[in-house]
Design brief:
Length: 346
Amino acid sequence: MLLEVVDPPALLVSPASRFCGEVLAAAELKLNDRPMVDRQRGGSEQAWQCFESFIGGRGESYRSAMSSPVTAYEACSRLSPYLAFGNISVKQVFQRVCMMQLAIKNSEAPRGTFTQWRASLKSFQSRLRWHCHFIQKMEDQPDIDTVNIARSYDGIRGEDAAKLEAWQDGKTGYPLIDACMRALRATGWLNFRMRAMVMSFASYHLWIDWRASGLVLARYFVDYEPGIHWSQVQMQSGTTGINSVRVYSPIKQVTDQDPDGTFIRKWVPELANVPSAYLAEPHTMPVMEQTFAGCRIGDDYPEPIVNHTEAYRLARDKIHSIRKSNDARIEATAVYRKHGSRRKKR
């Protein structure tokens, strides 16, 4: 039976609701007010301006500069919030990058002129593919924000409100962790390596359940994309069953990513005058050095919340004791069939 085609209405009237035009304040939503002083501005125009500045110059050092928080704020594309909110699409970005690659290929510039650009654009394209790959994981398993991808790891971690609070407030006694968490609260953004590090620290060193720490980060990130976020949270927590277990050293990462303490001193001003030799582990400063630096450990800056060496060993042993079990191996095979990369190995 065919139904009569109804003409479209001349006018759609919005329901009488305060949500139609009024933006609720954080307090009205029962959320803590966390002003982000350096948050990126939204909108399609800003998205394209950001993108053009990236391919117009900022992105040349992308491959080599994306891991350090000192250089990443400038060298990374910073497009993630705009992709998350739909101000610009992955397709638009990918096609524009392909056009640039083609222009470089056809360029008559002297050999070596675009070597760095070629490497950076290739790396950037791979991240665009990862973007879609990780979103697909949540499409395939919508509960990855609440359930371990590999159920062999159920119940291994618990809650610790005090440690969670110290971590989210940037008061763990590990300078790079604290600098990253404070920077995140102010800007809503961190580069990938630092995101992985702070999540790894919460899951392994503090042994906090990833659902609690992951929610903290989700509320801070202005580029929160559920599929990407929760996939990465579980990867950095060792609960996928198939990804490498990576326990980042918050001490070594200072040497690798912020050797001069530029980022740390900016976001953890208590440590501004601490000598570089002690910046990764300020609690090892002699009392005299603490006095000269104006930073008394335990008063001006906290003692380490956990012992790195002990926490690392305990976390590694716990994860690997599960990982090598027969049940976990069988489950990992099933997880890989469902979530593993389909890209052929070269």
